[in-house]
Amino acid sequence: MKERKVLRCLTAALMVGIAWPIIAVAAPPPLEVLEKQLKELQTQIEQLKQDKQEQDRRMREIEMAEKERATKEVKRGEEQERKTGILAEELEAIKRRYLLPETVELKSHYGLGPAASKVYQLPRGLSIGGYGEAGGTFYIADNDVPENAKKKDTADMYRFVTYIGYKFTDRIIMNSEIEFEHGTTSSTKSSSDGSVSVEFANLDFLLTDWANIRAGLLLMPMGYLNEIHEPPYYFGNLRPEVERRIIPSTWRELGVGLHGTILPGLTYRTYVTNSLNAKGFTSTDIRGARQNGNRALMEDVAWTGRLDYSPIPGLQVGGSFFWGETGQDQLFETSADPTASKKKKVNPNLTLFEAHAEYEYRGLRLRTLYAQGNISDARTLSIDLKQPISSRIMGGYVEAGYDILPLIFPETEMYLAPFIRYERIDTQADVPSGFTSDETKDIQVINTGLNFKPVPNVVLKFDYRNLWAAEGKVADEINVGLGFNF
What we know:
Layout: H1 2-26, H2 31-99, E1 125-141, E2 154-167, E3 172-181, E4 195-205, E5 212-219, H3 242-245, E6 252-263, E7 266-274, E8 301-309, E9 315-325, E10 331-333, E11 343-345, E12 349-361, E13 364-375, H4 378-385, E14 392-402, H5 405-408, E15 415-426, E16 442-455, E17 458-469, E18 476-485
Antiparallel strand pairs: 1-2, 1-18, 2-3, 3-4, 4-5, 5-6, 6-7, 7-8, 8-9, 9-12, 10-11, 12-13, 13-14, 14-15, 15-16, 16-17, 17-18
């Protein structure tokens, strides 16, 4: 009985030992433990919230950055497209200005040639134009002279010219002409050297219709061809002799002056420039007296003026003059006795004037010009220069041409004009006593031929010149050539 009690006690103790850990685990923890755990959970939740907020912030930054990048890409694309458009417009403008054919007819402004007037038609900036001409001369008659004096057939690049102008503002304009003559500046076995020259370079200050200032190296406003000498606008391959020997085209001097329109159809140009140098006068012409802006002597100045009037469409009448002393403070030999030299300063005066008229109607063009120069102190000049210098030089011409193509092809834009010109030149009309007139300088010329223009700015020319002098023989010529302006 006693053993059974002991056994039951042992059994009860064993069961309590086995169950105690389970009871201990299942029992609720103390309050401080639960508070600690709660705080830890709250800390974790706060951390999670912060992490979520940081993540949201970063996502917003990423989204904003993406939007900014996308916006920049759009703007960059728009800017690139804008720049591409501007570049395309500039290229198109360059093509239109320099590469594509002219879409409008060139027109003369302020007395200059049509191609030389391009700068006046620009809104602003640089203008480039020019002209050129080349041809051949074949001598066919009256050439039966000694072989060493016989003229040879020739071909020549007469000239290539560039016009460079710049329009600074609507009122201030620079314009210039640079001429390359005879293909090269070097001499060859066949000929002397050519040249490069500034034909004119001036500034225009456009003030009003009736008064504008022009200053620089100026084309003298005399005759037809001194100012407008582009080949599509005159008949024949060679310029009229009157506008070479009496009016020494192309003639330019340094100075300043005015130009403008006084009344509708009435225009003028007047300049004060350096004068000519009488040491350059010859029995043939006065071309050698030009100073051409090359360190020109300006001891003497000259006055030049011109008026043109167009009373009805197609008709123009006018005249011009040059007046100036030409001694340039130089010494001249005054004694005809070579053993008794007597030099002194003299001031020969040159008064040169011309009158002209032109009429154009449909295909018809009529033109006439007369020019005369009076030279004082002709005897002194003849002694000093050792050749007869006439106190009077004179010449004139009349010409007519007609575009016949519209009569055959009414819709054509091409041009074919037969023409004829008669001129008379005498640079020995009044030689001082004691000197013999050189009658070979009293010349008449009949020039007839064709001008053909496939387009208005290109001309092909063929002409025959019959020349004869009051004394001696002058070879006749066949001339063929081409010309253009742009």
